[in-house]
Amino acid sequence: MESQIVLQLLNGLVVGSSLALVAAGLALLFGVLHIINFAQGDFFMLGAYAVWLLLRVTHNYAVSVVVGTLLVGILGGLLLSLVVWPLLQRSQVWTLLATLGLSLIIEQVATNVLGGDAKLVDPPLAASVSLGPVSYPLYFLLVAVVGMSVLLAGAFALKTTKYGIWLRAVAQNRPMAAALGVPVPRVFILAFVVCAGLAALAGGLLVPLTAVYPTVGADVILYAFIVVVAGGMGNLRGAALIAILVGEVQSLGSLVAKPSVVTVGLFGLVIVLLMVRSRRESAVVRL
Q1: Is 132 left (phi over 0), alpha (psi -120 to 50) or beta?
Q2: Reduced to 3 states, what is the DSSP secondary structure of residue 133?
Q3: Please, are residues 177 and 160 in contact by the beta-carbon 8 Å criterion?
């Protein structure tokens, strides 16, 4: 039993760190542009497909992940710019429906071009390491390390780099940022590219664990929205912490309950977190 608990804790860390990349993109896009991006899960899917295809050319997993992330990030930035940009001055319902439509189109194109069957990718590392009572695949640990490193680097960039400061300025007060000379359109495009790139990176890292098929993004986006809502819309740090928590709850819960029951429990946990946070905010207002 002890070995199973340790194994599931490690699995939860891997899943949570990857989920945090997807959720961070969602949180960033909402924080800057107040857009809920339903196509985020499909960029995860495209990132996984990109690695699967590029491996046939490069025969190098690291190169395939980097190139795939860049390509999907640029493609996603262009698609979001074309679909969302004309609707920025309209109701958020229009942008929500537009990204939902984009998601359906991407899934259908992927099905028509690549087929509906699952594509498998072998892990680039076959070695394992001993961690207490279990022997754990080294690649799985590498996924967790890369995911958390990217999130830490992103948080550092938001605080210290020019574009990070511009992003935070636009998120806080778009008209004032524009009046002070911040190139708002460039910041929008950057947010689109980073949002898609983070999801693509998560997909490229996780494809050896989950395989890839056209609707794999739908399985990911549900948990990503749980993370973003519970962590606070636009709160990158909160999204990262909740993602780890969701990964651990999902993994440990599988030891004692069916996946459907665990999912219901996660929704219940989100409701409790939202209730606690709303009460704290109400208490602050009263003070």
Answers
A1: left
A2: coil
A3: no
Going along the chain from its start, the domains and CATH numbers come out as 2-256 (1.10.3470)
Structure tokens of 241? 């912490």
State the alpha helices, DSSP H only, in 85-173.
Answer: 92-114, 138-160, 162-172
pLDDT band at 270 (very low <50, low <70, confident <90, very high): low
- Residue 33 is which amino acid? L
- Looking at residue 255, the DSSP 8-state letter turns out to be T
User: Is 277 a residue whose pLDDT tops 70?
Assistant: no
DSSP assignment string, 175-230:
HHHHHTT--HHHHHHHHHHHHHHHHHHHHHHHHHHH-B-TTHHHHHHHHHHHHHHH
Q: What are the two backbone dihedrals, phi and then psi, of residue 10, each rounded to the nearest 5 degrees?
A: -65, -40
Q: Is the distance from CB of 24 to CB of 224 less than 8 angstroms?
A: no
Residues 6+ apart with CB under 8 A from 177: 166, 169, 170, 184, 187
Lowest mean pLDDT among 78-87, 124-133, 197-206: 124-133
* Sequence letter at residue 280: R
Please report, for the chain, how many H helices and E strands are present, in that order.
Answer: 11, 2
